[in-house]
């Protein structure tokens, strides 16, 4: 079991608790939970994780910020004096008040119209499991789930755990985004591909995937920009040329479309889409010639 001396970076906290950078910054400005600092490095300890988890629960149930401050102050005070806070402390509601409790002793009550039952043991187990394997091991687990073809939720969870263990792994984000894409959740897929590009702006696959999602969601100009990046970074990527050719046709950029149809046929002359690409190449060539003749 982890103690209060364990340190977690802001990125790790976001992954463990499912928070965003904006949420952490906002709560810091409200002085609800602030990161600790040592030699210029910002970090949170396990007590902070419990506090942040509690804040998240209360926010989701509509508790105002001033009440959050009071609830968190009571929570941190109790943690500071408890011998075994992770097993002794809980935050709950009796339907009329939010309270922090240890061994039946209540701290400062807060009014609220919801039911909350949060055991800190749940967070302990989450962190224990997430830190028990390396990123490569979690990736291997995710790939096994994918291979089985029926455990997609578990695969997504394993990819997210891999990224939590090693936040410098864009491959985990890309694979996770691909699963969301295949499930039809284009918004979530786009989010993961964008995160991957923040980590690795020169990742051709991330540009290709994001460009493909943007095309499907009607953001054709943005799609072309990312697909152009994909073929720039990997000129022998046939699928990137194929999708970029389609996008260029939508934008009536027929000369550019023809270049990428030709590139696709050259790179994959016997592929399943080669015959169709040749037809489109001929059509784009005709349209490009006609367009040039009218200008």
Report the order of strands and helices.
Answer: HHEEHHHEEEEEHHHHHHHHHH
Class by helix and strand content? alpha+beta
CATH superfamily of the largest domain: Tetratricopeptide repeat domain
How big is the Rg? 25 Å
Q: Please, what is the average pLDDT?
A: 75
Q: What is the 3D shape?
A: elongated
Helix count equals 15
- Strand content is 5-15%
> End-to-end distance, in Å?
73 Å
CATH topology of the largest domain: Serine Threonine Protein Phosphatase 5, Tetratricopeptide repeat
Account of the 3D structure:
This protein is of the alpha+beta class. The chain folds into 2 domains: 86 residues, Multidrug-efflux Transporter Regulator, Chain: A, Domain 2; 155 residues, Tetratricopeptide repeat domain (Serine Threonine Protein Phosphatase 5, Tetratricopeptide repeat). Helix content is 65%, strand content 8%. It is built from 15 helices and 7 strands. The strands form 2 sheets. Strands 3, 4, 5, 6 and 7 form a 5-stranded antiparallel sheet that branches. Strands 1-2 form a two-stranded antiparallel sheet. Helix 13 packs antiparallel against helix 14 and helix 14 packs antiparallel against helix 15. It starts with 9 loop residues before the first helix and ends with a helix.
């Amino acid at each position: 079991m982890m103690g209060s001396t364990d340190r977690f970076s802001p990125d790790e906290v976001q992954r463990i608790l499912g928070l965003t950078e904006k949420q952490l910054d906002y709560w810091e400005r409200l002085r609800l939970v602030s990161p600790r600092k040592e030699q210029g490095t910002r970090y949170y300890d396990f007590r902070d994780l419990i506090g942040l988890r509690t804040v998240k629960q209360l926010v989701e149930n509509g508790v105002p910020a001033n009440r959050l401050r009071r609830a968190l102050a009571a929570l941190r005070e109790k943690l500071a004096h408890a011998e075994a806070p992770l097993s002794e402390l809980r935050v709950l509601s009796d339907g009329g008040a939010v309270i922090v409790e240890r061994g039946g002793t209540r701290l400062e009550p807060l009014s609220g119209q919801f039911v909350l039952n949060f055991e800190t043991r749940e967070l302990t187990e989450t962190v224990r499991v997430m830190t028990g394997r390396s990123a490569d091991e979690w990736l291997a687990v995710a790939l096994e789930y994918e291979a089985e073809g029926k455990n997609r939720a578990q695969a997504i969870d394993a990819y997210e755990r891999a990224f939590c263990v090693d936040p410098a792994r864009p491959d985990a984000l890309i694979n996770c985004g691909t699963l969301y894409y295949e499930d039809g959740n284009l918004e979530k897929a786009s989010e993961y591909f964008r995160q991957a590009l923040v980590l690795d702006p020169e990742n051709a696959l991330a540009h290709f995937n994001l460009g493909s999602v943007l095309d499907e969601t009607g953001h054709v100009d943005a799609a072309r920009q990312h697909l152009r990046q994909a073929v720039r970074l990997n000129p022998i990527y046939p699928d990137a040329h194929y999708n970029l050719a389609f996008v260029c046709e939508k934008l009536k950029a027929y000369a550019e479309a023809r270049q990428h149809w030709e590139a696709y046929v050259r790179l994959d002359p016997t592929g399943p889409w080669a015959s169709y690409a040749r037809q489109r190449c001929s059509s784009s060539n005709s349209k490009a010639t006609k367009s040039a003749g009218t200008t």
